Task: inverse folding
C-alpha cells in the first residue's frame, strides 16, 4: 500500500516526507521533481515568500543511482526563509511576542482552542499551505512511475474571482499544455488571462484577496482503479477527499457533477460503443469514473478555492482575550489559484499511483508491469500504449 507521512513547519528548517510502498527500479529524474516544485511556486498573485524560496528536493533515502530501491523514500525541502525566522522558530527558547489576534478563515482560532496553545504562530506554522510543497514533491515522484503508463496531466485555472475561462479541453495536446504553462495565471483563454491579471492587480490594490477554480485532467489513466465494493475503495471517494484536503479548497467536482441536475439521464450517460475490438465512450460527463472505478476516459476534476483568508484591509475583530481589536495582517498571497492547479495535479498523481499499485501490486517495477500487462491484454480499452510498456512488461517476466 503506497502511503506517505509529511512533517515540517512553514518557517521551520525544512519539510520532510517518508514514502512507503513505492516499487524498486523506477527511474527518478530529480530535475523533473524540481520542475514540479518550480511550477507550484509560480503564478500571478503570489506574495513575498515566493521571492525568497527556490524549492529543491533533497533525497535522504530510497533512491540510488537514479532509481528507487524499494526502501522507504525520504525527501526534504529546505525553507530558505528559516534564516530570517531562526529566533521566532527556536525549538528551545520561547519567543517573546505571541500572536493573539486570530484571522477568520484560517486555522488560527480553531487550532488555539483545540491544542490549548497561547501563540497563534504555533497554529499558522503547520496549517499553512507551505505543506503543499512537500506534497507536490511526493506527487512528482509518483509522476515518474505514471510516465511509464503514459499518464499525462493538464492542470489549469478556470476561474479567478468572477472571471471564468469556459474553454473545454477534451483531449491531451502538447500545444494546449504549453500555452497553459506559459500563462502567468495558468489560463488557456488569452483574453480571460488578461482579465484575471487585471482583477488580481485591482484586488491587491484594495487590500483584499481572491479565490477561484481549477481543473485537472489526467489522460490515459488505466481502467479498473478503485472499486464499488466498499465506500472507501471508490476512486471518487479517494480523489475528492485528497482534493478537499488541500488548504483553502471548499468544493470538488468530478466530470460534469455540478451540471448534473440540469441534464436528463438520456443525455448524461456516457454511451457505450464497441469499435475495433474495444469498448469506447461517446462523451465524458462522468469524468472517467463509473461505479467508483476508472473507466479509461480522462479523469476530470475541478476544485473550488475560497478567497485567501489573510487580508490587508483592516477590520474589527476580537483577540484571544475577547477584547475588540483591529485585525492583524500576516504576509500573504492575494491569489493562489494557479498554484492550487499544480498542487492538485500532483495530489491526483499520488492518488492514481496509489491505486495503480493497489491493483497491479508488486515490489519491483517489473512485477507491477507484468500484472498490468495481463490485465491490459484482457481489458483492451483501446488506448495505444506504444511498444514500450508491453516490452518492459515482457522483459520483466
Ligand atoms: C498554494 C496555496 C497558497 C496559499 N497561500 C495563502 C496565503 O498566503 N495566506 C493565507 O492566508 N492563506 C493561503 N492559502 C490558503 C490557506 O492555507 C487556507 O485558507 C487555510 O489553510 C484554511 O483553509 P482550510 O479551512 O481549507 O484548511 C493558500 C493555499 C494554497 C493552496
Ligand atoms: C509558503 C507558501 O505559501 C504560504 C501559504 C500561507 C498560508 O497561510 O497557507 C501563507 C504564506 O506564507 P508566508 O507567511 O511565509 O508568506 C504563503 O507564502 C508556499 O506555498 O510555499
Result:
Amino acid at each position: 500500500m503506497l502511503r506517505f507521512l509529511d512533517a515540517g513547519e512553514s518557517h521551520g528548517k525544512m519539510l520532510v516526507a517518508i514514502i512507503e510502498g513505492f516499487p524498486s527500479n523506477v527511474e527518478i529524474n530529480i530535475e523533473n521533481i524540481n520542475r514540479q516544485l518550480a511550477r507550484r511556486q509560480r503564478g500571478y498573485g503570489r506574495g513575498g515568500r515566493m521571492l525568497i524560496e527556490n524549492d529543491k528536493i533533497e533525497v535522504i533515502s530510497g533512491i540510488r543511482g537514479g532509481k528507487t530501491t524499494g526502501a522507504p523514500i525520504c525527501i526534504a525541502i529546505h525553507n530558505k526563509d528559516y534564516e530570517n525566522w531562526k529566533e521566532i522558530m527556536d525549538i528551545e527558547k520561547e519567543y517573546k511576542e505571541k500572536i493573539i489576534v486570530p484571522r477568520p478563515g484560517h486555522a488560527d482560532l480553531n487550532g488555539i482552542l483545540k491544542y490549548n496553545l497561547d501563540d497563534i504562530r504555533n497554529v499558522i506554522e503547520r496549517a499553512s499551505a507551505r505543506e503543499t510543497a512537500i506534497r507536490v514533491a511526493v506527487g512528482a515522484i509518483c509522476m515518474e512511475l505514471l510516465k511509464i503508463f503514459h499518464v499525462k496531466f493538464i492542470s489549469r485555472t478556470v476561474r479567478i474571482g468572477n472571471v471564468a475561462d469556459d474553454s473545454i479541453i477534451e483531449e491531451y495536446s502538447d500545444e494546449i499544455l504549453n500555452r497553459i504553462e506559459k500563462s502567468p495565471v495558468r489560463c488557456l483563454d488569452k483574453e480571460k488571462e488578461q482579465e484575471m491579471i487585471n482583477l488580481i492587480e485591482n484586488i491587491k490594490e484594495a487590500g483584499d484577496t481572491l479565490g477561484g477554480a481549477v481543473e485537472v485532467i489526467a489522460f490515459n489513466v488505466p481502467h479498473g482503479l478503485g472499486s464499488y465494493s466498499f465506500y472507501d475503495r471508490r476512486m471518487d471517494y479517494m480523489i475528492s477527499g485528497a482534493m478537499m484536503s488541500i488548504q483553502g479548497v471548499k468544493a470538488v467536482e468530478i466530470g460534469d457533477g455540478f451540471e448534473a441536475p440540469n441534464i436528463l439521464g438520456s443525455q448524461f450517460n456516457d454511451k457505450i460503443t464497441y469499435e475495433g475490438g474495444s469498448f469506447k465512450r461517446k462523451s465524458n460527463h462522468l469524468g472517467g469514473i463509473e461505479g467508483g472505478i476508472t473507466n479509461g476516459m480522462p479523469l476530470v476534476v475541478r476544485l473550488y478555492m475560497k478567497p485567501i483568508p489573510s487580508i490587508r484591509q483592516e477590520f474589527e475583530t476580537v483577540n484571544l482575550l475577547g477584547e475588540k481589536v483591529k485585525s492583524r495582517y500576516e504576509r500573504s498571497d492575494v491569489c493562489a489559484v494557479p498554484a492550487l492547479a499544480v498542487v492538485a495535479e500532483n495530489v491526483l498523481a499520488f492518488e492514481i499511483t496509489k491505486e495503480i499499485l493497489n491493483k497491479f501490486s508488486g515490489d519491483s517495477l517489473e512485477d507491477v508491469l507484468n500484472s498490468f500487462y495481463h490485465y491490459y491484454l484482457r481489458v483492451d480499452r483501446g488506448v495505444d500504449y506504444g511498444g514500450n510498456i508491453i516490452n518492459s512488461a515482457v522483459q520483466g517476466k
User: Anything to note?
Assistant: The domain at 3-395 is CATH 3.60.150.10 (Chorismate synthase, AroC fold). The two ends are 22 Å apart (CA to CA).
